Every structure is written in C-alpha cells, then in structure tokens.
Amino acid sequence: MFAESWFYDFIIYVYALSLLFAFSDLMQPSRSSRRLALSFLMAVWFFQTVFFAWRTTEEFPRLAGLDSLLFYSWVLVTGTLVINRLYRMDFFVFAANLLGFGFLASNLYLSPEAASPLTEPLLSELVFVHVTLAFLAYAFFSLSTVCAVLYLVGDYLLKRKQWNRTLRRLPSLGSLQLFSYRLNMLGVPLLMLAMILGIVWAYEKVGGDFWYDPKIFGSFIVLAAYSVYLYQRVARGWNGRRLAWWGVISFFTVMVNYLISNAGLSFHQWL
C-alpha cells in the first residue's frame, strides 16, 4: 500500500514539474526549459505505462473505472509527445497536458474503483500538495508585489530627479520589473495546479456544492488577474508603471481571497 501511494504521488510531482517548465518556456522561450519539460513528460509517460501494464496484467482484461481514466491520461500524454515530435505546437502541448494532469489527479484519487483503505491517505496527501502549491503561488505573488512597489517608488524618484540615498540603494528598474514578471510567471502555473488538485479534493469531500464556496470563486479571480498580467506583458508588450500598477492591483485579489477563507465564509477554514 505504501509503495502504491508513493508511486501515485511521484507521478503527480513529475507531471507538475513538466507543466511548470512548459509554462516557463511559453512565457520566456528557453531551450533548457523546453528540454526539461519534455524530459519530465517522457518520464510521466514511462511511469504511466509501467503502472498501466502492471494493472492490466494483474486483472486482464480490465479497462473500466480507474484503469479507463488512467488509459485516457496515458493517451493524452502519448499524443502530445507524438505531436511535439512532428510539429512545434508548444501551447497546444501545454494545454493538452494540463487537461491530462487534471484527469490523472481525478483518476488516482477519486475513482470509485479506488475506494479502499488507501483512499483516505491519498486524499490527505492530495490536500497537503494542494495547500503547499497554493501557498508557494501566493508567496511568489507577494514577492512580485514587493518588486512592483519598489519599481513604482524608484520610478517616482527618478522622474522627480530626487537622487537621494533611497534611490541609490534600490535595484535598477529593469531588474525589478524582470524579477516581478518572473515571480508571477512561477506563481500562475503553481496556482493553476493547486486549483486543479483542490477541486478534485473538494468534489470528493464536499460534493458538487463546493462551486458555491466564495473561496473557489475568489481563487479564479486571482488566477484571472495574474493571467491577464502575463498576457499583457507577453502578448501586448506592457511594461513600466502600467504593468507595475497591474501587479499591485492583482495582489489585492490575493488579500481579499485570504480574508474570505478566514471570515467563516468558506469551508477552507476547516482544512
């Protein structure tokens, strides 16, 4: 049981790493990020193949419930690897594997066939991973906001030619803007993965009513705000004060979401 649980978690972590590097390559094209994303995705395919082969040889033929969803996830990974080999469609590959990650999570933790003494430990580990990823994302957003505020302070002093000690001790505006962007680039995919795992967990523990939880709605607003930040930076070339202000405003969605979870309005207070 322990080995099986460990194997489940290992696949999830490797898949998450693949998506993080793929997202990084989309935002800022890099050969090393692309290679790492592909390497981790191939590792996911290999471990899925091993696990699926073991499941089918144990009770053959068996392609229902748990195994049908696992097979579906495996087909998605296989297809994206083939497409990536034949064509360069990076965004399609990322989107397809984000879908595959969601199905893999629901496959491993929520399938009725998986109901066993293993289910509860897996769900506990799932919520632990969900919370860890969410807090990492919020930490990156917080650090990004600090950089954005410092950028606005430095820009204000420069425009008024106030060459004081504060300005001399600040990093360059270019560095602050780059750090803010890269921190958000890390935070968005982490929050995206955390939300996928959180929805999987909530569906099992709370049922379909979890969609009425204001914390869920608030998390989507946070994700949308920072996704718009990245879109404006990458697609429309925003920079400078306008982008810094958007980063600061986006952080208010994080604060509101945090207050919701601590005001007794969400089931998240029970975690």
UniProtKB/TrEMBL annotation:
Pfam families: Cytochrom_C_asm (PF01578). GO terms for molecular function: heme binding. InterPro entries: Cyt_c_assembly (IPR002541), Cyt_c_biogenesis_CcsA/CcmC (IPR045062). One of its GO terms (cellular component) is plasma membrane. Keywords: Membrane, Transmembrane, Transmembrane helix. It is found in: Membrane. GO terms for biological process: cytochrome complex assembly. The chain crosses the membrane at residues 6-24, 36-54, 66-84, 91-110, 130-158, 179-203, 215-231, 243-261. Residues 67-263 form the Cytochrome c assembly protein domain. It is a multi-pass membrane protein. Its main location: membrane. This is HemX family protein. It comes from Melghirimyces profundicolus.
